[in-house]
Design a protein that fits this description.
The protein is an alpha+beta fold. The protein has four domains: about 5-145, Alpha-Beta Plaits (2-Layer Sandwich); about 150-185, no CATH class; about 200-245, no CATH class; about 250-479, no CATH class. It contains seven helices and 25 strands. Strands 1, 2, 3, 4, 5, 6 and 7 form a seven-stranded mixed β-sheet that branches. The two termini are about 80 Å apart.
């Protein structure tokens, strides 16, 4: 702003004020001369020029601001005794006018480039000048930036020397997406040091060493082989997230069925465990050193595997088409996890009427009828098991105790058989093909509680439960 514009700003304030009646500016003697005018109106605001300064790029306009009120009237000027009983009232009004101006200039939003005095000292006077005036004055400074710019000089014919003072610089720092991270104003000639922090990184929720600002960080996922192999595919890759997806088994590995060995003493009964051993039935198999046995993930459930099964998921007990009973919500699901039913997943694929289904145990490779038969003695169980053709299979048998024990969850009181679904065997003791060495004419298997083999005479009527070898010991699934 120019001097004229600042004086006009002061005049506009005086004209708009409800108490101040007139405004003037100049030297004090001009105020004395003006006081002789008969039409002069009080209260008055007067601006006396003080020395102006330009220091370090800041231009300061300085005035001594008078706020004058008349105590004696024009008629009283000629009287020897003046009626000056309202001195304090005049002083109070003029002081209010002075602080009004200071507040107006500080709060003025229409001229954002100027700044005005915030620390002021008010000085009072009484019976001063020719009109018996009373009031206050304070020194006012209105400042603005001054750039010493040669462009504003009204001249021609010579080229001004280059300016040594520049305007303040606006600093704006943005990221690669255009988002403003930091703003600042740097004064002319000043130095600004902005330290950019390292970028914070985490891996699977854990903190790792951050990336240096403007630097790079390689993320490598690899196997723990003698010669590490880099693995994984980036499926999400943004400024905020890098998500790496790898297969369930990073290295291709063969997963074999884990079935217990046949190891009981030989017996002569048709198709009992001794007969199986003597006839090299289900011969034990040693897996290759670069393969693994299937295992149960007991941290989840006794019906859940560590490695994927042949259907591509980890549920242990499945129908032929890969459907399963989901222990998480007690619902039947198809191979893709969609809602299904027992009839569709365990019965219909093999032609059952729906009352009995066929279950494959993808831990051991054994197959089972979901429901036990009626009561029978051991001999009948062995014969009926061998002759059965249920679900189109002809290799049914009475199961060994070691096979049946794989269905027992030692972490709980009840076995998998005692779960309501998909098995429906109940708690009754059932016959096993295993006989005990100290009682070769007795053998049965009981699922309830924590018992394993419960000795019963071979003529006792127990539950008839049969199974089959659905997969050989040397069969495997590649992960």
């Amino acid at each position: 702003m120019t001097y004229n514009q600042i004086v006009k700003l002061l005049r506009d304030f005086a004209d708009a004020h409800f108490i101040i009646k007139s405004f003037g500016n100049g030297e004090p003697w001009e105020l004395v001369e003006n006081s002789q005018a008969k039409d002069l109106e009080y209260p008055m605001m007067w601006a006396q020029d003080l020395p102006n300064t330009i220091v370090k790029g800041e231009e300061a306009f300085k005035f001594r601001m008078y706020f004058l009120g008349q105590v004696a009237s024009v008629k009283q000027k000629t009287e020897p005794t003046l009626g000056e009983t309202n001195i304090n009232e005049v002083k109070s009004d003029m002081r209010q006018c002075a602080t009004d101006l200071a507040s107006f200039l500080v709060q003025d939003k229409t001229n954002p480039d100027i700044d005005s005095t915030r620390d002021i000292t008010l000085t009072s006077f009484t019976d001063d000048f020719n009109d018996k005036l009373t009031g206050w004055y304070f020194d006012l400074t209105i400042s603005q930036s001054f750039s010493f710019s040669a462009c504003n000089i009204p001249m021609d014919g010579i080229i001004p020397p280059p300016s040594e003072v520049c305007a303040d610089a606006n600093q704006i720092i943005k990221d690669s997406n255009g988002l403003t991270l930091y703003t600042n104003s740097i004064p002319s000639g000043a130095t600004e040091i902005q330290v950019i922090s390292d970028v914070t990184n985490t891996f699977n929720g854990g903190s790792i060493v951050g990336t240096v600002a403007q630097g790079n960080k390689d993320i490598i996922v690899e196997t723990d082989d003698v010669v590490p192999v880099q693995i994984g595919t980036a499926i999400v890759n943004t400024n905020q997230e890098l998500r790496i997806q790898i297969t369930s088994s990073p290295v291709s590995v063969d997963v074999y069925y884990q079935r217990p060995d046949i190891n009981n003493v030989p017996q002569t009964t048709l198709y009992d465990e001794g007969w199986m051993r003597n006839n090299n039935f289900d011969v034990p198999f040693i897996i290759p050193t670069d393969a693994v046995y299937q295992k149960i993930d007991y941290s989840v459930n006794a019906d859940y595997l560590i490695y994927n099964n042949k259907h591509g998921h980890k549920f242990r007990l499945c129908g032929l088409n890969g459907g399963y009973f989901d222990f998480n919500d007690s619902l039947y699901k198809d191979i893709n996890g969609a809602l299904s039913s027992f009839l569709i997943e365990f019965a219909q694929p093999v032609g059952s009427t729906g009352d009995i289904g066929y279950i494959e145990d993808l831990l051991t490779g054994l197959g089972y009828k979901s429901k036990r038969g009626g009561l029978a003695n051991q001999a009948t169980t062995l014969v009926n098991g061998q002759a059965a053709t249920d679900f189109g299979f002809t290799d049914w048998m009475s199961l060994t105790a070691s096979y049946l024990m794989t269905l027992y969850d030692w972490g709980n009181v009840n076995s998998l058989f005692n779960q309501s679904r998909p098995f429906q065997v109940g708690t009754i003791a059932v016959w096993t093909a295993t006989v005990t060495p100290y009682a070769p004419t007795t053998a049965s298997f009981k699922f309830a509680g924590r018992e394993s083999v419960s000795v019963q005479g071979q003529a006792v009527l127990l539950g008839l439960f049969i199974g089959r070898l659905a997969y050989g010991r040397n069969e495997f699934v590649t992960q």
